[in-house]
Amino acid sequence: MTRSEDLFNRAKRVLPGGVNSPVRAYQSVGGCPRFIKKAEGTYVYDEEGKRYLDYIGSWGPMILGHNHSEIQKAVVEAAQNGLSFGTATEIEVEMGELLCNLVPCFDMVRMVNSGTEAVMSSIRAARGFTGRDKIIKFEGCYHGHFDALLVKAGSGVMTAGIPDSSGVPKGCAKDTLTAVYNDINSVRKLFEENPGQIAALIIEPAAANMGVVLPKEGFLQELRDICTKNGTLLIFDEVITGFRLGLAGAQGTYGVTPDLATFGKIIGGGMPVGCYGGRREIMEMIAPLGSIYQAGTLSGNPVAMAAGITELTILKEHPEIYRHLEKLGESFRSGVKEILRRHGKEYQITGTGSLSCLFFTDRPVANYEDAKTSDVQAFAEYFHYMLDHGIHLAPSQFEAIFFNNAMKQEDVDLTLEVMDSFFSFHRKV
Ligand code: PMP
Q1: Does 209 contact ligand 1 (Cβ within 6 A)?
Q2: 114 CB under 6 A from ligand 1?
Q3: The pLDDT value given to residue 152
Q4: What are the required cofactors (predicted)?
Q5: In the prediction, which pLDDT does 418 show?
Q6: Which of 257, 285, 317 is the C-terminal boundary of a domain?
Q7: pLDDT tens for residues 99-134?
Q8: Which domain holds residue 185?
Q9: What residues contact 218, with CB distance under 8 A and at least 6 apart?
Q10: CB contact set of 211 (below 8 Å; sequence gap of 6+)
């Protein structure tokens, strides 16, 4: 028995499924998750010391590579002054200024501790501001495990085949309307059926929780227009796209400014951090200024702020990082296309910049229904082959893989080589 197997058995006795977040349990691919002991640069090391080229990157935060020396140093220095005060601190002001400077839609921002918390609070802000209850989300988009948004959701719930979680009261989900990603008519219909009642429309501006599905040209602008026309707030959930597609997030990349946006992952540099922010008149309704209540004991935690500010500052001062990531991503995607062509496979390789996904389906993927046509069994075989050859991918067809700045072209070449050998020797898939 390996040490990971031993730990997994122990874990299953005390943690549901042996994990603290479902996708980690390898539920859809089977087998035993690798228990990771340490990480450095582009590698993670399991409990037996085996090294893997890591494409999970803590599901996004590790855009600079693991255990970056400057972030580690900032965390240690901040910790020397105390771990948490529960009072106002200078470092929170610095983070607020940095974010408001970089994110187009941010006049003001509130720090929280996770992406889920950020989204939950942004929905409350939108409802409080508009005085309306209904919200629109898209099938296959995941916005955290908040009751009102666990409706036809992506990520782990899609992987587990339970996109509507039990335990969500009907009352909580009844005001959540779902539209089809990339289908503006499905959105128009909801606005027509619910005139004057929709507080917010929330979207992953590039969807990365049903695999990676990009918005069609003009789709985000059409959403912007329909929201403005109806007095509905447009919320971009940038928990994945924020500081990954570029310094101004997806709103900068696609040139569409939402009313509110949520961030997480990268802004914490690996510490538990999220934030939501947007137009001043909305954010001025948040307590203590206004009547929309939202609070947090550890929000703006000084050690977490130190990690996040350091990561964001490095990204801001080194624009070449995004160029490098873009190059790696493009070279990966064109390499995969070539492999698929050579092996006569019609599978879909999607992505942008440092986000990618290989869908095991012949059907071009523009939405949730398309993504669901993927052969998850074939994906599981591919996943295990890659893992056995030292490549650590997200253990689900419906997740993205993430490139990081510590990666080099040789790493991409190696990944493509292993992938090529998988398609050469695994004739079943
Ligand atoms: N929104 C999006 C787009 C996400 O991808 C995630 C998590 N993957 C969340 C929200 C929830 O964030 P967290 O897991 O930090 O609660």
Answers
A1: yes
A2: yes
A3: 87
A4: pyridoxal 5'-phosphate
A5: 98
A6: 317
A7: 999 999 999 999 999 999 999 999 999 999 999 999
A8: 69-317
A9: none
A10: 350, 357, 359, 365, 371, 374, 397, 398, 399, 400
Q: How many domains does the chain have?
A: 2
Same domain, 121 and 102: yes
Pair (76, 204) in one structural domain: yes
CATH number, residue 358: 3.90.1150.10
Q: Is 142 in the pocket of ligand 1 (CB under 6 A)?
A: yes
Together in a domain, 105 and 214: yes
Confidence (pTM)? 0.97
pLDDT below 50 — which residues of the chain? Answer: none
Catalytic site includes residue 265: yes
Question: Could you tell me the CA-to-CA distances from 12 to 2, 5, 16, 22, 293 in Å, in that order?
Answer: 16, 11, 6, 12, 38
d(CA 290, CA 32): 49
Same domain, 271 and 124: yes
Instruction: Dig out the tokens for 136 from the structure.
Output: 């629109």
For ligand 1, whether the C-beta of 204 sits within 6 Å is yes
**Rounded distance between C-alpha atoms, residue 177 and residue 232, angstroms:** 14
| Distance (Å, whole) CA 140 – CA 157 | 9
Amino acid at 273: V
Atom of ligand 1 nearest to the CA of 119: 10
**3 state SS for 239-258:** CCCCCCCCCCHHHHHHCCCC
- pLDDT computed for residue 427 by the predictor: 61
Told to judge if 189 belongs to the known catalytic residues of this protein, a careful annotator would answer no
Q: Using CA positions, which residue lies closest to atom 7 of ligand 1?
A: 144
For the CA of 21, the closest atom of ligand 1 is: 14
- What does the pLDDT look like over 256-292, one tens digit per residue? 999 999 999 999 999 999 999 999 999 999 999 999 9
**Do residues 234 and 351 both lie within one domain?**
no
User: What tokens appear for 396 in the block?
Assistant: 């689900």
Contact present, 177 and 136 (Cβ < 8 Å): yes
The one-letter amino acid code at 204 reads E
